[in-house]
Specification:
With 406 residues, this protein is of the alpha+beta class. A hairpin with a 2-residue loop joins strand 14 and strand 15. The protein is globular, with a radius of gyration of 22 Å. The chain has 2 domains: 183 residues, 2-Layer Sandwich (D-amino Acid Aminotransferase, Chain A, domain 1), CATH 3.30.470.10; 188 residues, D-amino Acid Aminotransferase, Chain A, domain 2. It has 8 helices and 21 strands.
Length: 406
């Protein structure tokens, strides 16, 4: 067997060198019949797919195959493959947007690629060059650019996926892999009634402490497929009780970690001037979200006078801090819990209007202040600013990256 390891951006190097992933070797086979683009009101998240996809295979003796863009189709995977038997699948979630000049852009793709590589390493999957994966993503967007929506709050979702395809039931790391990249046009993750004046529908969450999403030393800080499927049954239970998502708790103190697949923020009034913006620290159980990082970065820049945020806002003291359900209860009782929201690639910002929790066998609720637009001023400011950067309406650092080279 060839010996290989990852250096740099996932570049392969070893005693017996094998082929690295190389976008320059890309071949493109276009679909002979393009699908019609459905009306945008039918774009439920992740249900509509574009015409093409990227495929590349890794073999430990050969390395990475020449990548191919081909008409989107089913994959041929043996039922004894590692990804089916042991869940060795990792993925990323990204989006492409159209800027005012009609050009497609990506939002902070370097963060996605770094996280993709970390997730693959955590699951002992073969490494890959992240620069080459990003180059393949851009080529796929160029091929399927007609699918990028030209409406605010709509985007083209990008799902790079790496699956372990080692054949055999032995409990071992997969030394074979398939890289698949596909695209899906999408609208708001939590759509509001089009006849409503509500800008963004607030969601309700049910705090869950009997089942954990992630645990210390586990894979919660990575985009691993199994992180999500274990939450489906608790989510079904929460939805039967009238809640839309789970608020994941950890430990006997019931520490807040994430909401559904989103990072969590709360806005808490201060006794002095301004508000606190808290989000749980990255302790290995929480995904280092791109949107999470963007909110914190913008908040710090706002406080330093380096940027502005839309609306009339107080001083925002943003920091990572552990907080519990008991803290939420106390802040609510004191009238200091002003806003709560989730942040993630799919939702951008989702306002939380109600938090359910069980107390001595009784289901209770923390109801947050209602806002005319369905979203609080702090959450709305970050949502608007991030959207404007994503869509190329505003420049901030190098977060918005053109797909076409200048």
């Amino acid at each position: 067997m060839a010996l290989w390891k990852s250096v740099g951006n996932g570049t392969l190097e070893g005693i017996s060198r094998v082929a690295d992933l190389d976008a320059a070797k890309l071949t493109i086979t276009l679909s002979k019949t393009l699908k019609p683009i459905p009306p945008r009101h039918t774009w439920t998240f992740g249900t509509i797919m574009t015409d093409h996809m990227v495929i590349a295979e890794f073999d430990p003796e050969i390395g990475w195959s020449s990548p191919e863009i081909k008409p989107r189709d089913s994959l041929k995977i043996d039922p004894a493959s590692s990804c089916i038997q042991y869940g060795t699948t990792v993925f990323e979630g990204m989006k492409a947007y159209i800027d005012p000049n009609g050009k497609p852009r990506l939002f902070r793709p370097d963060m996605n690629m770094a996280r993709f590589a970390r997730s693959a390493e955590r699951m002992a999957l073969p490494p890959f060059n992240t620069d080459q994966v990003l180059a393949l993503i851009k080529q796929l967007i160029i091929v399927d650019h007609r699918w990028i929506p030209q409406f605010t709050d709509y985007s083209l979702y990008i799902r790079p996926t790496l699956m372990g395809t080692r054949l055999g039931l032995g409990v071992a790391a997969s030394d074979h892999a398939t890289l698949c990249i596909f695209l899906s046009p999408t609208g708001p993750y939590f759509p509001s009634d089009e006849s409503s004046k509500v800008k963004a529908k607030p969601i309700s969450v049910l705090a869950e402490s009997n089942v954990v999403r992630a645990w210390p030393g586990g894979t919660g800080g990575h985009k691993v497929a199994l992180n999500y499927s274990a939450g489906f049954l608790p989510l079904r239970t929460a939805q039967k009780e009238g809640y839309e998502q789970i608020l994941w708790l950890l430990g006997e103190e019931r520490r807040v970690t994430e909401a559904g697949a989103m990072n969590v923020f709360v806005v808490v009034g201060r006794d002095d001037e301004g508000v606190d913006l808290f989000t749980p620290p990255l302790d290995g159980t929480i995904l280092p979200g791109v949107t999470r990082d963007s909110v914190l970065d913008l908040a710090h820049a706002y406080m330093a006078g380096e940027t502005s945020l839309p609306g009339t806002l107080p001083l925002i003291h943003a920091r990572e801090r552990i907080f519990t359900v008991a803290d939420l209860q106390r802040w609510s009782a004191e009238g200091k819990l002003l806003e709560a929201f989730g942040a993630g690639t799919a939702v951008i910002i989702a306002s939380i209007g109600k938090i359910g929790f069980h107390d001595q066998g009784e289901l209770k609720n923390i109801v947050l202040p209602a806002h005319e637009n369905g979203i609080g001023p702090i959450a709305d400011a970050f949502r608007t600013r991030i959207l404007d950067i994503q869509e190329g309406k505003e420049e901030w650092k190098i977060w918005s990256v053109p797909v076409f080279e200048a």
